[in-house]
Amino acid sequence: MSELFEHLDRLKSAEGKAALATLVNTRGTTPRKEGAKMLVGEGGRVLGSVTIGGCVDAQVIEESASVIAAHAPRLLELNLGDEDAWEIGLTCGGTIEVFVEPVDLKEPGGETLRLYERLRKHAEAGGRAALLTRLDAPNNGAKLLLLDTGERDGGLGAAGLDERVAAEAQGPIGSGKSSTLTVDGTRIFAEVFAPPSIMLIVGAGHVSMPLCSLARSLGFKTIVVDGRPRFATRERFPDVDEIKIGIPSELIRAVPLVPSTALVLVAHDYKYDLPVLRHALGTPVGYIGLLGSSRRGKAILDLLREDGLSEDSLGRVRVPIGLDLGAQTAPEIALAVLAEVLAVQRGATCLPISEKVRRGPK
């Protein structure tokens, strides 16, 4: 989501009008999921992608010019042969649907832009929301914004439809996955937005700096915690969202340690590691990684075991941290850590993709 707003901000200063293309439906498995977006400015500037480039994006760019000229949205159904499908990551030929709508970047009263701006403010404040877009004529492009506060904004253009669609949208909202719904014969794209996952880094050392930059580039909200003000500085962490200086085990209590949060301990200091782990293991935090050797990890886990923590609880601590990439330098270690975080969050196999394809679906 942050990528979309960054692109909108960049286009606002250079373009008056644009087409916003959203991937709303796929058949098969593709690297880009429903909700992937591309912006095409009236001057031809392209930001983002609805697939991974190639034939589909080229067709969407071509259609965007007519959407801007007519100032009317359009649902594109792109039928792919095997070769085209393989190019964008589908295992065989199929169909994808892309909704392309005009956006007036200079007009403050534009409904689409207004709803996205409200959504941005809500998400930045930690809220969750769903933006429902009508795909069928008449009133295709009409939108209804549902906030987790219970507030609604906009409308889908038919009596009673808002209530019925809002009820059906609870499924995608609960799963956190955007998808296309059919309600009373009307197709609706339910785009689900949630606050970004948090990368909570305890220790402002040399591995933390590239880890923070990499994590932020992937959309994480980054927080660095350390008790040493000389290390936890904006000069060392220019990309970080938030720096907390003080006693880590106390400061992390103000951070939501939920399943979407990744806690990475890289301080290499027992005074930080033990109290932080005691607290974190009593929460549903989704990932806990500890920098250090197997011997150091065993020593820390033994101390926690003496405190009465269960084996199941201790099994949540990943030490040594990261995937085996042969990492040696700080940036390489950071990459290995972030790769493991993503794999855990998404339930990935960690296999080379070529090996995964050879094994086939389970």
Keywords:
single chain, 362 residues, alpha/beta, Rossmann fold, 6-stranded parallel β-sheet, 5-stranded antiparallel β-sheet, 35% helix
Structural class: alpha/beta
> How many distinct domains?
3
Low-pLDDT stretches = 82-93
Topology as a string of helices (H) and strands (E): HEEEHEHEHEEEHHEEEHEEHEHEHHEHH
CATH class of the largest domain: Alpha Beta
Q: What is the fold named in CATH at topology level of the largest domain?
A: Rossmann fold
Helix content: 25-40%
Tally of helical segments: 13
Rg calculated over all Cα atoms: 23 Å
What summary fits the major beta sheet? 6 strands, parallel
What does this structure look like?
With 362 residues, the protein is α/β, with parallel strands linked by helices. It folds into three domains: 1-107, no CATH class; 108-195, no CATH class; 198-346, NAD(P)-binding Rossmann-like Domain (Rossmann fold), CATH 3.40.50.720. It has helices at 2-12, 55-70, 82-88, 111-124, 161-168, 170-175, 208-217, 248-251, 270-280, 294-306, 311-314, 330-346, 353-359; strands at 17-26, 37-41, 46-48, 74-80, 94-104, 129-134, 143-147, 152-154, 179-183, 186-193, 198-202, 221-226, 242-245, 262-265, 287-290, 317-318. The strands form three sheets. It has a six-stranded parallel β-sheet with strand order 13-12-11-14-15-16, sandwiched between helices. A hairpin with a 4-residue loop joins strand 7 (143-147) and strand 8. It is elongated. Residues 82-93 have low confidence and may be disordered.
